[in-house]
């Protein structure tokens, strides 16, 4: 049975496979992000330890993104995805039974190693469909990733209430089993001939891991930075960039590289990568700040906070479908991106003003505006970035895009935390000079009137900063000519 025939005979089933494979990692990551404070409190983790676990997740994810095509060439998509589901479930098992940092970090690293497969694989499976069916595959793909993000908060709240934080990870076992059962029979199993496969590059991948870890560590360590450590972080970050540059240069000169940079070196694609980074940075900042604001700024219950976030992310699903249909008939990428950035800036500015009322009802509309804006921006970037990418390097292009995604998300969370600590420590916000340690202790403590007010006011400042940062990006989008 060829990979081209199976989807044609059972299109609904194949679309269900795309949705199931794509949604696994987004669902689990969404639950962990929403429940971060509960996990840290239960395991007695300091924020920098949780950040280190996030760093290890990102490092293993980026490593596997580099090896994605290499694995597919040798295993085929069916065996590769099934093996990844097994490793992801094993990582969930380690996290669920963890009693401290080491085992939890190891479990998250395994989940990053396996989870990197699903997003790229879901997108590449669309190419198994006939050309006239691929738009349906794209809609299934987008609906799955945004739908998983929308369901994650309310699912996390329910699991936390019923079984505690460990249930967030126990659920990955039946989830992976269900996806494997659904997908095993219809995933393509073809392998590439030996003469067409990428080279091994294991020695150079050691340098890749070191470079990625150093860069991720420097980014994640910014919020916990103490006096005198800035220079050390700059050295680590600079050395990591040098190592990664040497790795890229070496790959450039390979006949069969892991990533074919020569085939990707075009202005439209490079601009798209920069816009992807900015877009995922906006998503990461919003996704990190909004639950923290609701729970620790306004003191809302876990269930109400989850319901609000799920409602907003559900709006993202609707916005993504509307954008996909509009862009198919009216492909004005620059206008959609400008509209999205202005909507995001308006939502963040509105949030910064509405927080003065300390009423969650006034936050619903600006939160929804931010949620609605992001699919219009990233959807337009997605339509524009890969237009001129040749078919033979499309997989490589998508691997690099997902590496940029991981860096954008981790950078945004780190910088958001830094900004929150800075604004929280202002005397006007805390009533007296607060310290970063006091903000960290808030994660493990019951909210007080003083801490609620301080977090609310600091969050208002962060959202105002996000609104201001959106405007220069809108100016760049308006002036560029590659994506019109």
Could you characterize the architecture of this molecule?
Residues 14-484 form the Major facilitator superfamily (MFS) profile domain. It is a multi-pass membrane protein. It is found in: Membrane. The longest helix is centred in the N-terminal third of the chain and has 50 residues, at 47-96. 79% of the residues lie in helices and 0% in strands. The protein is globular, with a radius of gyration of 22 Å. The two termini are 41 Å apart. By secondary structure, the protein is mainly α. Mean pLDDT is 82; it is low at 1-9 and 430-435. The chain has two domains: 1-185, MFS general substrate transporter like domains (Growth Hormone, Chain: A), CATH 1.20.1250; 254-484, Growth Hormone, Chain: A, CATH 1.20.1250.
Task: Provide the descriptors you would attach to this structure in a database record.
single chain; 484 residues; mainly alpha; Growth Hormone, Chain: A; globular; disordered N terminus; MFS_dom; transport; transmembrane
């Amino acid at each position: 049975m060829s990979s081209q025939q199976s989807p044609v005979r059972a299109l609904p089933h194949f679309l269900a496979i795309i949705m199931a494979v794509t949604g696994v990692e987004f669902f689990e990551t969404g639950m962990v992000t929403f429940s971060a404070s509960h996990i840290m409190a239960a395991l007695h983790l300091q924020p920098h330890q949780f950040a280190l676990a996030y760093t290890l997740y990102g490092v293993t994810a980026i490593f596997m993104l580099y090896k994605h095509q290499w694995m597919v060439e040798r295993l085929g998509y069916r065996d590769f995805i099934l093996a990844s589901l097994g490793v992801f479930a094993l990582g969930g098992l380690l996290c669920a039974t963890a009693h401290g940092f080491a085992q939890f970090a190891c479990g998250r690293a395994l989940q990053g190693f396996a989870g990197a497969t699903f997003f790229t694989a879901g997108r590449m499976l669309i190419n198994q469909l006939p050309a006239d069916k691929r738009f349906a595959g794209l809609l299934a793909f987008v609906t799955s990733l945004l739908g998983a993000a929308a369901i994650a908060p309310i699912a996390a709240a329910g699991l936390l209430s019923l079984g505690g934080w460990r249930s967030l990870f126990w659920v990955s076992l039946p989830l992976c089993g269900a996806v494997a059962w659904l997908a095993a029979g219809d995933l393509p199993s073809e392998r590439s001939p030996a003469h067409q496969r990428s080279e091994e590059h294991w020695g150079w991948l050691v340098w890749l891991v070191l470079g990625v870890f150093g860069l991720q560590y420097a980014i994640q360590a910014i919020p916990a930075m103490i006096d005198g450590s800035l220079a050390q972080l700059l050295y680590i970050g600079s050395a990591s960039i040098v190592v990664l540059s040497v790795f890229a240069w070496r790959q450039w000169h390979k006949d069969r590289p892991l990533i074919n940079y020569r085939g990707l070196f075009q202005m439209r694609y490079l601009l798209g990568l920069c816009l992807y980074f900015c877009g995922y940075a906006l998503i990461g900042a919003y996704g990190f700040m909004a639950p923290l604001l609701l729970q620790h700024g306004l003191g809302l219950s876990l269930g109400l906070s989850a319901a609000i976030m799920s409602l907003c992310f559900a709006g993202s699903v609707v916005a993504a479908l509307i954008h996909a249909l509009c862009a198919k008939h009216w492909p004005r990428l620059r206008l959609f991106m400008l509209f999205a950035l202005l909507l995001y800036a308006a939502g963040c500015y509105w949030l910064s003003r509405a927080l003065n009322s300390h009423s969650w009802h006034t936050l619903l509309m600006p939160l929804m505006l931010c949620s609605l804006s992001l699919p219009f921006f990233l959807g337009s970037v997605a339509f524009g970035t890969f237009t001129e990418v040749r078919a033979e390097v499309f997989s490589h292009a998508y691997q690099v895009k997902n590496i940029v995604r991981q860096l954008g998300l981790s950078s945004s969370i780190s910088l958001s935390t830094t900004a929150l600590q800075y604004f929280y420590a202002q005397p006007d916000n805390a009533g007296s000079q607060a310290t970063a340690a006091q903000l960290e202790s808030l994660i493990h403590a019951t909210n007080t009137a003083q801490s609620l007010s301080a977090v609310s006011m600091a969050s208002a400042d962060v959202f105002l900063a996000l609104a201001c940062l959106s405007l220069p990006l809108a100016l760049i989008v308006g002036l560029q000519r590659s994506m019109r």
